[in-house]
């Protein structure tokens, strides 16, 4: 069984940088992108889907890995005939996209890593600050296991920021998760160490963080920029907002970043196409 469900396409545009794939994070669904979709779909082919956290199926440990999610993202993109897309990965999906891009670089023209973190646990011996110590994460997981609903009602307002309408929408999505799936995916995310996955990323990246995000601080973005040495380029953009879901509370700021990324990706795609054509012609100016 795949993790993804309810895949759909919106808008126009063709392959290459004309395609945008939107991958939401933990607890959410594709409605997370509703405030961005009208503008993005006007000139681009947009692919949306849900990570299906709602039903308990197989319990195999290998199901709950970033690698499994990455393989399923690749399968979705293959199914939709995507090549060279701009992929926006939010929260957990940012690291999923990083892993997938290393496994199948032909699918990715540019990565937008939104509110990303490769490791939430602090590592004092390495000087790494992820934002959480082990005791606080263990307490969070215990609270989820004891009463998922109570945990959601405490967690979501902090994650959503100051917008009450965003809180209500997110709570509904979080509460639709199957309790066992919610716990196991949270364990996968918050106890992970995916820093090594950053080393293999070759695609150009834009790391977008929120200035006041309790889950993924701007310092994590700077760590990611320093770690992704193979990437064609890495830009860090900090949105002046609160919370872990800028799609909901700062959509215009995020949209401005995405439009700039899409323009650059389109220009790069045109340059690659021109270079390929010139190489095919043996470097001879056939118009002369």
Automatic annotation (TrEMBL):
The answer, when asked if Hydrolase is one of the entry's keywords, is yes
Top-rank taxon = Eukaryota
Name all AB hydrolase-1 domain ranges.
19-251
In its UniProt record, a GO molecular function of this protein is: hydrolase activity
Q: Does the keyword Hydrolase apply?
A: yes
Keywords attached to this entry: Hydrolase
Q: What does the sequence similarity comment in the record state about its family?
A: Belongs to the AB hydrolase superfamily.
Record-given protein name? Alpha/beta-Hydrolases superfamily protein
Q: Which organism is it from?
A: Zea mays (Maize)
Lineage of producing organism: Eukaryota, Viridiplantae, Streptophyta, Embryophyta, Tracheophyta
Q: Which gene encodes it?
A: LOC103630801
């Amino acid at each position: 069984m795949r993790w993804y469900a309810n895949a759909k396409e919106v808008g126009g545009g063709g392959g290459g940088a004309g395609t945008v794939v939107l991958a939401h994070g933990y607890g959410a669904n594709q409605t997370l992108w509703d405030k961005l979709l009208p503008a993005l779909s006007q000139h681009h082919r947009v692919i949306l889907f849900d990570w299906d956290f709602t039903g308990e199926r197989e319990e195999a440990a290998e199901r709950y890995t970033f690698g499994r999610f990455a393989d399923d993202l690749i399968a979705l993109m293959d199914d939709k005939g995507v090549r060279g897309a701009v992929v926006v990965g939010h929260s957990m999906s940012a690291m999923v996209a990083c892993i997938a891009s290393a496994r199948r670089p032909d699918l990715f023209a540019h990565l937008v890593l939104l509110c990303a973190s490769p490791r939430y646990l602090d590592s004092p011996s390495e000087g790494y600050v992820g934002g959480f110590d082990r005791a606080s994460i263990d307490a969070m997981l215990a609270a989820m296991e004891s009463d998922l609903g109570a945990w959601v009602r405490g967690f979501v307002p902090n994650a959503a920021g100051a917008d009450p309408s965003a809180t209500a929408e997110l709570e509904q999505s979080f509460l639709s998760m199957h309790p066992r799936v919610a716990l196991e995916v949270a364990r996968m995310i918050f106890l992970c160490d995916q820093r090594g996955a950053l080393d293999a990323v070759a695609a150009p990246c834009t790391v977008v963080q929120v200035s006041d995000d309790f889950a993924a601080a701007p310092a994590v973005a700077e760590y990611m920029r320093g770690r992704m040495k193979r990437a064609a380029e890495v830009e860090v953009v900090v949105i002046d907002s609160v919370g872990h879901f800028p799609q909901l509370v700062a959509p215009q700021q995020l949209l401005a970043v995405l439009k700039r990324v899409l323009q650059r990706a389109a220009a790069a795609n045109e340059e690659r196409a021109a270079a390929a054509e010139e190489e095919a012609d043996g470097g001879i100016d056939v118009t002369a």
